[in-house]
Amino acid sequence: MPTRHNLLTSRWGPILTGIAVGVLAPVLVALGNPGNMGVCVACFSRDIAGALGLHRAAAVQYIRPEIVGFVLGSLAAALMFREFKPRNGSAPLVRFLLGMLSMIGALVFLGCPWRAYLRLSAGDGNAILGILGLAAGIGLGIVFLRMGFGLGRNRPAPRALGWVMPGVMIALLLLLLFAPQFGRNPDGTATGPIFFSAQGPGSQHAPILISLGIGLFVGFLAQRSRFCTVGAIRDLILLKDSHLFNGVLALLVAAFFTNLALGLFKPGFQGQPIAHTNALWNFGGMVLSGLAFTLAGGCPGRQLFLAGEGDGDAAIFALGAIVGAGISHTFNAASSPNGPAAFGPSMVIVGLSLCIVLGLTMREPQST
Amino acid sequence: MANTVTLDTRGLSGPQPALQATHALRPLAGGTVEVFVDPGTARDNVTRIAERAGWRVTEEEQSDGSLRLILRK
User: Which residue of B has its CA nearest to A145?
Assistant: First the structure.
C-alpha cells in the first residue's frame, strides 16, 4: 500500500498543509489579494456569486482562481493516489441548505474559518470573537452528533459524476479568462453575464496564474492530508484527536511569522481590513457558520477538496455556498466594515433555528 | 477471542466512521473487531483512533473497493 506511508497522510500532513497555507495566504495578500484575505472560501464564493450576477454588490465581484485550484488540485491528488471515488446520495438537499446557511453566517462575521485564523494571525482582534463563535457552533454541532445526527450514507456513483464539479471549475476559469459580455445596457454598452468589480475587494487580486497555482498546490496537499479547519476543533472535542488541530496551529504560527515578515501584522480591533468591530455578531455569525459546517462534516475548504475527489454531496454544499453568498447580499445580510447589515442578525437567527431543527431531526438509520 | 464485533461504516462521511468506531471500541477490553470502511479518510481516521487505543490494525481489500479493517487487542 504505497499511500499508507505517505508523508502527507501521516501526522505531519495537516501540519505541512497548515504551514503551506500560512505562508502562501499572506503572500497572496502581498501580491494583490484583499487585506487578510489570502484565502477565504466564504469571501471567494461571494466574489464568484457576484461575478456570475447572483448578487448586485458591485465591490465584490471576481472569479477567484484559488477556488478553482482547490478543486482541481484535489482532483489531481485523488487521481494520482487512486482516491478519486465518485459518490453521492447523502442528503444532498440538506447539504445545499447547510452550504447556504454557512455562508450567511460567515458573511456576517466577514470570513470563513480559514480567514478567521488568517485574520487572527495578522493581528485582527475581532477574529478572536469569530473563532470563539466558530468553536461554540462546532460544540453545538457535536451535541447533535452525540444525539445521533447524521446525513446518511452515500452510494458509489458513475465515474462521470465525479467530473462534474471539476468541469464547473474549468468553466469558471474560462469565464474568468474570457469574461463574456453578452448583455446590453439600455444605453447600448456591453454587460454581463460576467461582472468584475472596478473597485473594492473584488478588484483586488493576485495575478491569475499565481492564484491558480497556489490553489492547485494547496488543493493537492489538503486532499492528501484531509486538512479541515472545522474538523480540527471538532475532532479535538469529540474524539480527543489533535491530528487536524495541529494543522490549524501550524497555519496560525506560519501565517503570524509571514505576516510579520511582510509587514502585514497590525494588532488591534479598529480599522482592520474588511472587518467590523461588532463583537456580538462577529461571534453570532460564526456560531451559525460553525454549526452548519459541523452538520455538513467539514469546513468550506474541505468541501471543495472532497468535491475534487468525486464527492457529489460536498460539491452540492459548495454550490449551495455560492448561492447562499448571493442571497446574503441580496437580502442585505452581509456585513460591511461599518458593521452588520440591517438583516444580518435576523438572518443568523433564522439560520440557527433551521440548523437546530435539522440537527434534531436528521437521524442516522440504525446500522450496527 | 471472546467478542467479535462488526461495524459497517461504508458510505458514511466524516466524522461518523471514527465516531462509531470510538463508540464500538470503548466498552471492549479486547477481542476482535471488524470494521468495513471506505478507503481514504475513513480508513485513515478509524485506523488512527484504533491504534491510539492500543488495537492492532490489519486490512483486507474487498471486491467492492472498500476495506475490511481487523482490529485486535
Answer: B16
